[in-house]
Amino acid sequence: MIDQQVIDAIRVFHPELTVLRQDIHAHPELGMEETRTAALVAGKLREWGIEVTEGVGKTGVVGTIRGKRPGNHAIGLRADMDALAIVEQTGLPYASLNPGKMHACGHDGHTTMLLGAARYLAENPDFGGTVQLIFQPAEEGRGGAVAMLADGLFDRFPCESIYGMHCGPGMPVGRFYTCDGPMLAASGRFWTIFKGNGGHGGSSPHLASDITVAMAQYVLALQTIVSRNIAPRETAVISIGHVAGGDMQSLNVMPATIYVGGTVRCFNKEVREVLERRIVELAHAMAMAQGCEVESHVEWGTPTLINDSDQVRVAVKAAQSVVPESDIEANMPPITGGEDFAFMMEQKPGAFVFLGNGTAPDGSFHTVHTPKFDFNDAVIPLGSAYWVSLVKTQLGAEVA
């Protein structure tokens, strides 16, 4: 049953939350540089009478709310705060004021929705136990989750279970998505550097070890790993994201160094090991064939995000207090995006959900990590209400 009272209460301060979200959007900060954002978060939590700890994992913030009912259980609700190194092209009145930095993944909205829940819970602590509000830095590849864990996150702020949420561009507004088991992929990246003696491409190409040929063969060979080394029932992705060599001002010069890099995704350890081995093996094989040198390295960033079945049931029940059951997809197919909340979920059982960010009237939308993406402020009350309902569901208060 939908808890309209909570939604309506949050809608009262929805305009303030919108201003807050747009302020965060206008002042994006990269991972481990979120000093302004962290200070803003800590300031708001203190304003609402919430116990605050700053500097967790360098720039992380944790707020602690204890319910007025008896109870010893504790849960963690996590939002991320960092932005991306992207030049914004939205043209919005609250567009980024920090050149080359942009909230292109919705973390401004994630932070705001958790702040909205924090305000409501501080004013209405009708639950038993403790809620840890985890505002994480550096989700975008700079190790924020690992840094908070290394700083004793769960020792200092005990949690029996943890929960995360991400906006979903292109998904209908207010629709929740989750699944049991693997939901998001392990994410890695690779760098390969081919090295040769270079040469004059016009007068003496025969004297050079043409590393451009090795690079080209390598890029093509990488495409066979998924099709010929990974079982058809498994999912894996290898995509080239960077190729660099030579100089546009010297097109007659055969380069002595060429860089190739990209991203890799998968869902289990065995596939991960195959991807890592074959990426490096093929680099050395192509270099040997062309008579040049090579360095190749694969680095894994985040593990597979695996939802716990018990926590998924809690998340679905919480969502049912916010939207009709028809707006909850509890069996979404896993996707190959990565999320470093997975590091926290390796230590504590949890559940991750997507909340629909909507589309334009013509059905178009800008996806995350692009220069024109913007979080939809209309979903703030639903996201905040979901967090509140999750607390009530997990910590024993009855939802009317």
N→C terminal distance? 8 Å
Counted beta strands: 16
Major sheet summary line: 8 strands, mixed
The tally of structural domains comes to 2
- Give the ordered list of helices and strands: HHHEEEHEHHEEEEEHEEEHEEHEHEH
Task: Give an overview in words.
The chain is α/β, with parallel strands linked by helices and 400 residues long. The chain folds into 2 domains: 4-184 and 304-394, Zn peptidases (Aminopeptidase); 186-302, Alpha-Beta Plaits (2-Layer Sandwich), CATH 3.30.70. Helix content is 34%, strand content 27%. The chain is built from 11 helices and 16 strands. The strands form 4 sheets. The protein has an 8-stranded mixed β-sheet, sandwiched between helices. A hairpin with a 3-residue loop joins strand 1 and strand 2. Helix 2 (14-26) runs antiparallel to helix 4 (107-123) and helix 7 (211-229) packs antiparallel against helix 8 (269-290). The termini are close together. The mean pLDDT is 96.
